[in-house]
Amino acid sequence: MTGQPIPVIIDCDTGVDDALALLFAVRHPGLDLRAVTCVAGNTDVDGVVRNTLTVLEQAGAPDIPVARGAARPLIEAARSAQHVHGADGMGDLGLPAPTRTPADIDAIGLLRREILASPRPVTLIPTAPLTNIALLLRTHPEVVRNIERIVWMGGAVAAGNATPVAEFNVWHDPEAAAILLTAGVPITMYGLDVFMRVVVPGEDVRRLRASAEPGARLAGQLLAHRPSAPDPDGDDPAGGLGDAGAVLAVADPGGLTTRRLPVEIALAPGPTRGQTIVDLRTRHGESELHEGEREQALVDVALEVDVRRYVELYLTAVEG
Ligand code: BDR
Ligand code: CA
């Protein structure tokens, strides 16, 4: 690693894999995690705040400011993912309650304060529904002058998860995702196409779980809650890094292959709502010929990921 650490802020809905992302962010020497903001998503926003504070304490980073944000999407009601993330939203691991409370400022205020106060432009990493980010962009548009880029876990070029075509973070608040695309700063979309592929082998999960160091042990417990492949030995399935991949992509952009492509969010009610429509065409079609071009956001869409490189980077940082 050369140069100064990259100032980053994570906006999350902790969340088993958001927790994996936080563990990496506080332990990688190339990243300077300046704040964490919380939003309703995997569980209710108070649960997200509690989980986030607990993870930071377990990771040995109890001083990073954490703020509570939106309790529900801009338009829809909140819809949790507790069937994936457990009743407490973070795997029901029986972790201790945090010893501190969140910052005395809401998430939008904390985002504004930390972005504008940073001596170098901040990289924003949303790993959750985009409600806080949309509110920030609409309330304090001046922040974009000190945002380097936004590396966003959300969307999918191919299949969705919340619906056949919509990824959870977009499906949860499609209007907010559409506002994100108007930010006017470079955006990288770390979607399901790469998200699903970065998986830690079972033998590494087993070693992490047996670690005497609380942060590494927590990473093992979280990965064990995200089995993504049957374990040939029976006990310890491989575990997906999920949201942590977006933070890996900031620490090591060379591990990701992206293409700058037009992206649009489907907002109409019905089966396509929440889809990220990524235009992979290499030339105009009949719609542009007959109706002209529509203005669309250009996004650096992740299409390939070096899985081994990212898994090694994760383990090296988290195990120290
Ligand atoms: C996303 O949804 C959440 O369940 C995960 O934390 C991740 O951010 C994947 O669709
Ligand atoms: Ca998440």
Description of the molecule:
This protein is α/β, with parallel strands linked by helices and 320 residues long. The chain has a single domain, classed as Ribonucleoside hydrolase-like (Inosine-uridine Nucleoside N-ribohydrolase, Chain A), CATH 3.90.245. The protein has helices at 16-27, 45-58, 82-85, 107-117, 131-139, 168-172, 174-180, 192-195, 202-209, 214-224, 244-251, 286-291, 307-319; strands at 6-12, 31-38, 66-68, 122-126, 147-153, 187-190, 199-200, 227-229, 238-240, 256-265, 276-278, 297-305. A 9-stranded mixed β-sheet has the order 3-2-1-4-5-6-12-10-11, with helices on both faces. Helix 1 links the parallel strand 1 (6-12) and strand 2. Helix 1 packs antiparallel against helix 10, helix 4 packs across helix 5 and helix 5 (131-139) packs across helix 7. The mean pLDDT is 93. Bound molecules: beta-D-ribofuranose and calcium ion (CA). Beta-D-ribofuranose (BDR) binds at residues 15, 17-18, 42, 81, 84, 127-128, 153, 161, 167-169, 242-243.
